[in-house]
Design brief:
With about 260 residues, the chain is of the alpha/beta class. The protein is built from 10 helices and 7 strands. It has one domain: Glycerol-3-phosphate (1)-acyltransferase (3-Layer(aba) Sandwich), CATH 3.40.1130.
């Protein structure tokens, strides 16, 4: 029985990719047109949202977003300034989740290899920023460009772990770039806890995929502590703790038979 379950989840990976590619191709004329000029980037992001929703829906995957008390989608839609969205990263689907969560004009930062991805390259050649993390010069140029985007009123989406974690729900340590930007530009960080994406589609399909509901929790904005002796470190640790604690609370509420570790054994 377990063998057949594994086969079904592997087959669903192929179907999942087919859905996302199919919707992308349908929307490609709009994606291409709106990606040609920065003045059209708001429309490009709206198309991205449609792609994320339809691709997931055709796969039987839906996203349920909850907000911390006192915060809602209207706040994010009407916030007059740029924001930096920071999320944990445990699945390929996290990009689609964050495209649904973020509001206004937003852009991603990611690894340089994404410029070669046949689907994502059009975004990373235009609105998004790809860079080599191990190269200090390239990283400096990338974050300088990100700062310029923030100055223009765009919001940044970044996964500060740098790559998909190998041991969900435990996160990798956070890199500092996003927190340096937040302090330098005096921009609030919106932490986002993606609670179970790895159970729906783990590690880019290496352990299979299945239909289901991905749950995301949007925390209140976090601002730098002006009285801290090390504001960058304090901000990074605070955001990490908020995201990890929310994920752990979610895992603790699951019945034993639904626990990720059990369902994937």
């Amino acid at each position: 029985m377990q063998y057949f379950k594994h086969i079904i989840r592997r087959v669903f990976v192929i179907y999942n990719y087919f859905c996302f590619v199919f919707v992308f191709l349908l929307l490609f004329p709009f994606i291409f047109y709106f990606s040609r000029k920065p003045s059209r980037y708001y429309q490009l992001d709206q198309i991205r949202k449609i792609w994320a929703f339809l691709g997931c829906a055709l796969s039987g995957i839906f996203i349920k977003t909850d907000y911390e008390e006192g915060l809602d989608k209207n706040f994010l839609e009407n916030h007059p300034e740029s924001l930096i969205y920071c999320s944990n990263h445990a699945s390929f689907l996290d990009i689609l989740v964050m495209s649904q969560v973020a509001q206004g004009v937003f852009f991603y930062m990611g690894k340089k290899s994404l410029e070669k991805n046949p689907i994502l390259r059009i975004f990373f050649k235009t609105i998004d920023i790809a860079f080599i993390r191990e190269n200090k010069t390239d990283s400096y140029k990338a974050f300088k460009k990100a700062g310029e985007n923030l100055d223009r009123g765009m919001s940044l989406i970044i996964f500060p772990e740098g790559s998909i974690t190998a041991n969900p729900p435990q996160m990798r340590s956070f890199k500092s770039g996003a927190f340096k930007l937040a302090i330098e530009k005096e921009i609030p960080i919106i932490p986002v806890s993606i609670l179970n994406s790895w159970d729906i589609f783990y590690s880019e399909g290496q352990s299979g995929a299945k239909p289901g509901i991905i749950r995301a929790f949007v925390h209140k904005p976090v601002y730098k502590n002006v009285y801290s002796a090390d504001p960058e470190r304090e901000l990074k640790e605070r955001v990490y703790s908020m995201i990890q604690t929310k994920i752990q609370d979610y895992m603790n509420q699951l019945p034993m038979e639904e626990d990720w570790a059990t369902s994937n054994s």
